[in-house]
Structure formats: structure tokens, C-alpha cells
Amino acid sequence: MTEKQTIQSLVTLFAEKFLEEHFGETPDKTTVTFRPPFLLIHLSGFLMPSEEIFVEKGNLDNVLKTRDIIIDSEKDQFLKGLQEHTGQNFRDLYADWNLTKRSGVFIAVMENVHPTDVFHWPQGVQEDTLREIIILNSIRTQKKPDQTNFYWLDEHILLVERIGILIDIEKQLLKNGLAEELRLAKRPMEQRIIELFNLESILNSTVQELFVDWNFQQDLSYMLLLLKKQDE
Predict the structure, then answer these.
(1) Residue 112 Cα distances to 37, 43, 74, angstroms
(2) Any idea where the Na+-translocating membrane potential-generating system MpsC domain is (predicted)?
(3) Which residues are bridge partners to 225 per DSSP?
(4) Residue 40 CB: number of other CB atoms within 10 A?
(5) Which residues face 32 on adjacent strands?
(6) 97: helix, coil or strand?
């Protein structure tokens, strides 16, 4: 077993134990992708029985808000656990959920580590058009990012980093202590990128899931696109 495979196995065990302790459930499947400085944990089949009632009635925000509160309060502990299991230092954690698909994602970013690996663009992807669409969607939901970076963790996983996207009214809302309300409002606006743009032809694949989260203090966002594999 390689070092990367060992880390993936250890992180899987840690993440499932963390979820069981704080949510009372474990996912049906946990998939870990490690491409420094990013560690991605994708959860499949993860929805508590108590949450199903809200989801069935369309009250998704109630579930999202509760999960956000739990993750935010335990973020430091989660990052500490990742460090203990991987031997790597992590500076920040991002999380998002697709409740209707019973899935979710954690994105951990390593501390003081800049991407040294080459994140190649897959064949068939229209790079310039995709960049333009990501920027256009950011303008539609907030403003043009000061900086936009694309990281293909593999040919089916695209992580988009946007720096400097908050507008003045959003910054004022944050000063007024409305960070969670802002996060809940921005999520569905960001996710409409799938409906508004023909991403399938641009990516040469179907977007199966899209996740997004923010570090409002650093004015930084990560958007994750999981693409359908050819054999699925």
C-alpha cells in the first residue's frame, strides 16, 4: 500500500468515526482524494432519519443550518484529527451537502503548502469557455473574482478556487453577524450554474454533483464539480 493509499484509508476511518460521534450516522460510502494541498472527502448515502422529514417537506435550510453549526463548532477538532491521522497540517475546512442525493463533501486545505503538482486539464474540456462561465456565474451571484484558479484533482473532479468575490452589501451583512443567512442564500444561486449554462458540452461530461462553500473572513470560495465517469 502506498503512502497516499494509507492516508486515504486512515482519513476514511477518521471521517466516519467523526460523523458517527457528531451526527449519529455513518455514510454508506466514503471516498477520499488526496492531491496536496487538497484533501477531499466525499460522502454517499448520508442522511439521518430525523432529517428525512425536513427533506421530504422541502425544508432543506433547517437541515443545512444545523449541519453548518455542527461543522463550524467542530472544525478545529476535525482539522486536528486529520493532522493526527495523516501527519499533515491543515489550515482550513470547507463543507457542503446535497441533501436530495444524500451526499456531502469536506475539503481540507493544507497549511503553508502551495500546489506543486501539475493539475492537467483533461482532453475534451473547453478551458477558455469554462473559465469564462465560472467568472460570469460569479458576476451573476456576487462579483468578478480578483483571482480564479482551477485544480483538476483527477479527470472527473474539478476544484475551483475564487478569491475576492464579496460585494459591499455582503461584507456589511457579515459585520452584522449574518454569515449563516448569507451562506444559505448564496448556495442555491451558485448551484444554478448547471441550469443556466451548457456545462456538459464544455466539460465533455455530465456534472453529477456541485458543492460550494466559503471562508467569508478571507473572502475565499471553493466550488467542487464531480463529473460522471464514462463507465457509470
Answers:
(1) 9, 27, 22
(2) 15-111
(3) 158, 210
(4) 22
(5) 41
(6) strand
Q: Has this prediction a pTM greater than 0.85? A: yes
User: 2.60.40, 3.40.50, 3.90.1150, 3.30.980: which CATH number matches 3-110?
Assistant: 3.30.980
For cell 448515502, name the residue.
45
> How far is Cα 94 from Cα 16, in angstroms, rounded to an integer?
17
Q: Which residue is associated with the grid cell 484533501?
A: 39
Enter the DSSP assignment of 229.
P
> Where do the structural domains in the chain lie, given as residue ranges?
3-110, 127-227
Mean pLDDT by 10 residues, the chain (232 residues): 82 96 95 95 96 94 96 96 93 97 97 74 93 93 93 96 96 96 94 88 94 97 92 60
Q: How far apart are CA 222 and CA 227, in angstroms?
A: 16
C-alpha cell at 29: 460510502
Q: CA-CA distance, 72 to 30, in Å (whole number)?
A: 21
Radius of gyration of the chain (CA): 17
